[in-house]
Amino acid sequence: MHINRTTDAPGSHKILKKFSYLFSAHWIRELLQAVFLIYLARTHKDTFGQFSLALNVGHILRFIAECGLNQQLATLLARKAGYPTALLAQFTIIKSALLGLGWLGMLGFVFWQDYDPTLRWLILIIGTAVGLEALSSSFFVVYQILGRQDVEGRLRSLGAGVGFGYGFAALFLGFGPVAVSLFKLVESVFNLLGAGVGVFRRVSFCVNWQQLHAVWTTWKQGIVFTLMAIVAIFFNKINMFFLQNAAGPEGVAQYTVAWSTVEGICTLVSGMLLGKVMFPIFAKLWIKDRVEFSRLGRDASRWLIAAALILMFALYIESDRIVTLLYGANYADAIWMQQTLVPAVILAYVHNLAAYMMISAQKQTLLLWFYIAGLAVNIVLCVWLIPAMPLLGTTLAIILTKVFVALLTVSYCQARFRLLPGASLFHLGLTVLAGAGLYYAGRELLFREAGEVLALLPVLTLAWRWRKEFMQAKARAGA
């Protein structure tokens, strides 16, 4: 392959630089999507709930088509376990087959649930569009492994601009929900063509029919990743289907407003920084330098937790302002639901860090069993909690499931890699207690904003101290 590599200096992984490219694209796309969905939520609450459910189905279809294969592809490319063009051909064939099977399953599900015709079309169009992202993601993995996150960032930004440009135009021209939903298909097709053409220009990509026997071999190697991805997406998404049956589009709209901000913050780090920047680094380090592998994991866990605490606190205390300002006064339930969902941020950060370290260390089978246990817990919670108390039950089901799975993954990495040293855990506990005390004291004795500022001081102090220790260790290593 002839894509220019990003050359890293010895001891440097250029994590922030690579992350900045993806963050810029993510920020552009999320901003456009947020404005688009906020407009829907303010003007067409039921349509907003339907779009949210359709996107949820699409995410499941995408995960079924990807089936964890991106992690396997990244690992194989990092280890040079096959010629890149052959690997891309094999993974594209596998994903296309899975996408077709998943689409048939989606079609059956839509008619089984007896949704109204408009919701059926929305799910089929938006679901198909989101599912197509599984194919373009294979090409983006190539850019990530080669350190060309800047190329991926530009393509994703352009795709978001074209897709949401159509969506906004359709809304303002008064098109119906089905016509508006084509915005997602426009974005997905643009990304698929842009990423594919970008790779094809640099590699000779052709399917040799004599090589197709290798597809089955690749598929067998990826079965664990397949099952893991399917189980993970179901325990993250099925609560919304229980909520649809218990509370209808109104309940789905309330939950979506509450979850969207929390999920956005989680995805920002879990999906981009950990999944697309740090995971390829972990995969390489496990082969080349396991001491550096463990050190990077420990350093990452500390600043991820520090960042999570700040974001969680800000999101919790500002939920009333965020929801009311963005979505209006019709989403009062979303305020307390968002506050209940706040722990998902730190759970997502530490769990996904631990999960990617386990995959890099070839412990994906154990991780699969952790996910299966999490799905079982989630189903029990959904059946038990949601029918009796739809909104509270939906939030509790996802949070308690995430707590359970994070305890399993983090405990494993703590025992094997010493993910968080004991002293760091102790300092973290003191920081949380001090911050809570200052917040309530400032709020009661002074005013709300004073408590908010005071509560951040312990966390910022801890983050500064951890950064100082990191810089000192880096200086000693370079000496």
Can you walk me through this structure?
This protein has 479 residues and is mainly α. It has two domains: 12-221, no CATH class; 224-420, no CATH class. It is built from 18 helices and no strands. It has helices at 15-43, 45-66, 69-78, 84-112, 117-145, 149-172, 177-180, 182-200, 213-221, 223-288, 290-317, 319-327, 332-341, 344-360, 364-385, 390-417, 422-445, 448-478. Helix 2 crosses helix 4 and helix 5 runs parallel beside helix 8 (182-200). The chain is globular. The two termini are 36 Å apart. The model is unreliable at 1-13 (pLDDT under 50).
Keywords:
single chain; 479 residues; mainly alpha; 2 domains; globular; disordered N terminus
What series of H and E elements makes up the topology? HHHHHHHHHHHHHHHHHH
The stretches of 5 or more residues where confidence is low (pLDDT under 50) are 1-13
Oligomer: single chain
Query: Gyration radius, to the nearest Å?
Result: 22 Å
Distance between the termini: 36 Å
Mean pLDDT, all residues: 80
What structural class results from the helix and strand content? mainly alpha
Please tell me what the overall shape is: globular
Number of domains: 2
Helix content: over 70%
What proportion of the residues form beta strands (DSSP E)? under 5%
**Count of helix runs:** 18
Largest sheet: none
Number of strands: 0
Topology record:
Blueprint: H1 15-43, H2 45-66, H3 69-78, H4 84-112, H5 117-145, H6 149-172, H7 177-180, H8 182-200, H9 213-221, H10 223-288, H11 290-317, H12 319-327, H13 332-341, H14 344-360, H15 364-385, H16 390-417, H17 422-445, H18 448-478
Helix pairs in contact: 1-2, 1-6, 1-10, 2-4, 2-5, 2-10, 3-4, 3-5, 3-10, 4-5, 4-9, 5-8, 6-8, 10-11, 10-13, 10-14, 10-15, 10-16, 11-14, 11-18, 12-13, 13-16, 14-16, 15-16, 17-18
